[in-house]
Amino acid sequence: MSALLQELKSLIILEWKLEWKQKTALSSIFIYLLSTLFVVYLSVKRVVDIPTWNALFWLVIIFAAANGVNRSFSSDSKGRMLMMYSLVSPQAFIISRVIYNSILISLLSLGCIVFYTLFLENPIQNMALFILATTLGAIGFSSILTLVNAIALNTKNSASMSVILGFPILLPQLMISLKLSKFAIDGLSATVYSKYLLSLGLLDLAILVLALLLFPYLWRD
Fold first, then answer.
1. Burial class of residue 136, CB neighbours in 10 A (0-12, 13-18, 19+)
2. H helices within 22-89, ranges in order?
3. At what angle do helices 50-74 and 127-152 cross, to 10 degrees?
4. Which of 67, 71, 173, 221 is the least buried, fewest Cβ under 10 Å from its Cβ?
């Protein structure tokens, strides 16, 4: 276990250092997020009903997550993957990618909440629940997209393949996230949303377990 933790720490630090060297890649994600939010603002002009407000918010999150995770795998050359294969375990590699992408997309999602509520009106009555639902949703999206991109990495058109594989798996996560954020907007009590919150957390855990079980077989190929 200590060896796995050490590998995780080293891989996450490595990802951060590589990300920091490519500042333009990281800043492009934030620019993409801001430009998308600004387009949404220009389209609706602050007057929008709550279901549309909620749906547009999650659309922005999904596209930001897809863009961020796809970018993290696009820099993986065959030489680098071969080096990783010889140095670290497949479990450490996939968990480190899931953790790093989850942190990145969660930060983007929290930033999205700030700018989204600045550009548009803020109808959220339970902000703590909304932030929790957004964070859990972002972690789930990141985990799913990380696993799907790892599966599609060796295909000729990995970006298209990841979209085809990822969209059906994202639907349950998206539906529960939409419900939770709607409950947060309406300010409903914990007795209403607690089972959905538990379901979302269990889905995140299930995706992580699935990644741990499947990725070692992909790693061998």
1. buried
2. 23-44, 50-74, 78-87
3. 40
4. 221
Which of 195, 68, 62, 189 shows the shortest CA–CA distance to 134?
62
Q: What is the per-residue pLDDT for 78?
A: 63
CA distance 33 to 37: 6
In whole angstroms, give the CA distance from residue 69 to residue 195: 29
Residue with tokens 């907007």: 185
- Give the pLDDT of residue 162: 65
Q: Which of 59, 55, 204, 104 is CA-nearest to residue 144? A: 204
Q: For residue range 115-140, what is the model confidence (pLDDT) as tens digits?
A: 887 777 788 888 899 999 999 998 98
pLDDT digit string (tens) for 172-189?
888 999 999 989 988 887
- Alpha-carbon distance of 100 to 94, in angstroms, equals 10
Distance CA 141, CA 138 (A): 5
Residues 6+ apart with CB under 8 A from 32: 64, 67
